[in-house]
Task: inverse folding
């Protein structure tokens, strides 16, 4: 523990405002601070009273920061020196570190706690070095006769350490390069495919483009698995702590896999019991990654039967809840002797499954690591030929100040509902829920049977108040059923609810055009989703219309906004320009940092999208120059600069933010990502 009151800090900076702000903050934190307004004065103080640590500006008149650094390192090599500079140019950083700087910070420092953190780390390191030196001197005195042998062993250990560090560094460089080189062309492939899918296409053209998109995403999944494993090995996985809705997360996962399950003839079941809290705090992206991987495996190894996702509560307090997730399938199963190896990297149950089913063998390794990082546990039970069940337990905090739900158990006595469905699990779920709400329920297995029941109910003077119809009926699809009901005017289409597990977006669009207010994804994960739709159709209480999905309707951009794209790859230029123009923006292009600076001098931009790695002048240097132009008044105001890069390792985002960028997008860029970031800053 550092005794701050006995620690002296020398701050050398010719900018009085910055020097005073640093001094005030450190003195408030308990340090004793000495000030110098130039390099000469700083060296005089240093030689008169050697401080515990020195903070020095890089650019100063007469004696600059590098000169100060050189003198201090020569005269007192154990004194930590942190360079605090207004420039983030890579060469300056390299020069400072080569001359002996212990750390390098870029001004302005928006949060001075970052500065104190650097000071503490350097002081701790200096203390460790001093203690190590004292220990070595004492050890040499005690074991004089073994000095030669000890030095020899130490030298070997240092060489081994250097070799290991070099190998690890080479691995990180390789992964970063691989990520960049693969993501850049994939951004072109996926981006162009996404833009093409927004145009008028024949069914065959749309099919080809969807196959391209699916194949591209499969390649990205493999790349992401390799990078995730590397991040985990390097302890570079960061978990988020954000508010999220468990029901919405599970619905997004079900939406992702429902079509694949239906195509294989599998029943995909998922229900959230009413007693499970859904407003949680944690990392929804990592939860989705865990469950998606387990469901994808279940789909891969199951040819018939069903896949069930079970959610339950292990324990609960006012602030937290421990949840249990089970993913069960009726697939090929796993032998008992293989259960221990399935969580190891690059392993499958046997080589034949790799050839038949594909995959890298990394998925379960990543899942296990993520679950443990989130403070949970994972296990598996399986029997060959009888399927498998993967169990995951995860702790979550509960959101505070949650508004009580207005959807208490309703009384729908007297309301008559017809369910046209032949899916046994969904039928049973809907039957139980509507019976619980005390409505009268009738069932039909086919479209023809359902039409006949609607006709009879109308002729008897007791028409149905609501019809819930599955889109996938044995004798007709849901749209054909809607057309027949509309043709005979059997029931207002506003009284119908369509449920589907395939082509959800397409079915919903077509249903809405016909006048259907609600199209629900099957299986229905949350009873509240069905209840809200039912209450709206029955007009029992006022319901807020569903928000349009950003995937289906693009928000119109302000035509006055002009954006600058700084990107050296011609294909990626076309992709990003096409997406932003689709959003309604006016766009200019610069091929490197120098062109970007010229463009900014000639025109005022609302936002800049900046690639990081470019020839001539990269995105980091260009951003620093733009921020300097803003400080000098050459540019007015603060221009939001969004990095987009093919680099995807931990620390890349921090590099962008340190350089002065406002946000960060990873290639391949998606249309919805651009829409979110433009909406956030404009």
Result:
């Amino acid at each position: 523990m550092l005794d701050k009151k006995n620690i002296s800090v020398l701050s050398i900076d010719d900018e009085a405002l910055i020097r005073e702000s640093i001094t005030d903050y450190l003195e408030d934190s308990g340090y004793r601070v000495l000030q110098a307004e130039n390099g000469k004065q700083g060296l005089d103080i240093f030689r008169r009273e050697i401080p515990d640590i020195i903070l020095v500006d890089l650019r100063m008149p007469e004696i600059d920061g590098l000169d100060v650094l050189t003198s201090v390192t020569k005269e007192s090599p154990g004194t930590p020196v942190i360079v605090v500079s207004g420039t983030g140019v890579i060469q300056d950083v390299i020069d400072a570190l080569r001359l002996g700087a212990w750390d390098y910070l870029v001004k302005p420092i928006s949060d001075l706690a970052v500065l104190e953190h650097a000071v503490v780390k350097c002081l701790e390191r200096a203390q460790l070095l001093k203690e190590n030196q004292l220990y070595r001197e004492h050890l040499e005195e005690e074991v004089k006769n073994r000095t030669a042998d000890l030095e020899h062993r130490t030298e070997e250990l240092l060489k081994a350490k250097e070799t290991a560090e070099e190998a690890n560094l080479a691995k990180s460089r390789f992964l970063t390069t691989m990520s960049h080189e693969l993501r850049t062309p994939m951004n072109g492939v996926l981006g162009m495919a996404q833009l093409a899918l927004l145009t008028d296409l024949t069914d065959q053209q749309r099919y080809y483009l969807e196959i391209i998109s699916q194949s591209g995403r499969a390649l990205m999944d493999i790349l992401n698995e390799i990078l995730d494993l590397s991040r985990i090995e390097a302890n570079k996985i960061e978990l988020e702590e954000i508010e999220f809705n468990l029901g919405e997360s599970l619905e997004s996962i079900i939406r992702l896999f429902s079509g694949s399950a239906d195509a294989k003839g599998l029943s995909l079941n998922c229900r959230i019991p009413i007693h499970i809290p859904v407003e949680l705090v944690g990392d929804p992206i990592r939860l989705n990654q865990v469950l998606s991987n387990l469901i994808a495996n279940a789909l891969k190894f199951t040819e018939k039967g069903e896949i069930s996702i079970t959610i339950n509560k292990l324990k609960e307090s006012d602030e937290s809840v421990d949840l249990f997730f089970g993913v069960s399938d009726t697939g090929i199963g796993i032998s008992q002797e293989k259960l221990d190896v399935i969580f190891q990297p690059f392993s499958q149950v046997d080589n034949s499954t790799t050839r038949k089913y594909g995959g890298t063998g990394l998925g379960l390794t990543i899942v296990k690591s993520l679950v443990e990082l989130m403070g949970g546990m994972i296990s598996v039970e399986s029997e060959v030929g009888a399927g498998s069940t993967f169990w995951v337990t995860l702790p979550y905090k509960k959101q505070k100040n949650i508004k009580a739900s207005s959807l208490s158990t309703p009384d729908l006595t007297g309301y008559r509902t017809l369910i046209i469905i032949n899916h046994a699990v969904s039928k049973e779920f809907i039957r139980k829920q509507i019976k619980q709400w005390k409505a009268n329920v009738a069932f039909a297995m086919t479209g023809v049977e359902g039409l006949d029941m609607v006709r009879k109910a109308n002729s008897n003077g007791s028409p149905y108040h609501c019809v819930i119809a599955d889109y996938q009926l044995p004798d007709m699809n849901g749209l054909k059923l809607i057309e027949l009901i509309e043709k005979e005017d059997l029931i207002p289409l506003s009284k119908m609810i369509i449920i589907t597990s395939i082509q959800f977006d397409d079915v919903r669009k077509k249903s809405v055009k016909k006048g259907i207010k609600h199209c629900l994804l099957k299986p229905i994960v949350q009873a509240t989703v069905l209840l809200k739709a039912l209450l709206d159709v029955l007009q029992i209480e006022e319901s807020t219309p569903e928000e349009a999905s950003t995937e289906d309707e693009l928000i119109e951009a302000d035509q006055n906004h002009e954006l600058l794209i700084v990107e050296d790859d011609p294909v990626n230029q076309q992709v990003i320009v096409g997406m932003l123009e689709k959003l309604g923006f006016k766009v200019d292009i610069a091929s490197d940092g120098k062109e970007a600076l010229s463009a900014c001098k000639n025109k005022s931009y609302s936002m800049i999208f900046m690639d990081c790695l470019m020839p001539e002048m990269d995105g980091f240097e260009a951003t620093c120059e733009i921020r300097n132009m803003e400080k000098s008044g050459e540019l007015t105001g603060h221009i939001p600069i969004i990095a987009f890069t093919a680099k995807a390792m931990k620390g890349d985002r921090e590099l962008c933010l340190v350089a002065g960028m406002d946000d960060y997008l990873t290639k391949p860029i998606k249309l919805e990502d651009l829409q979110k970031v433009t909406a956030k800053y404009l």
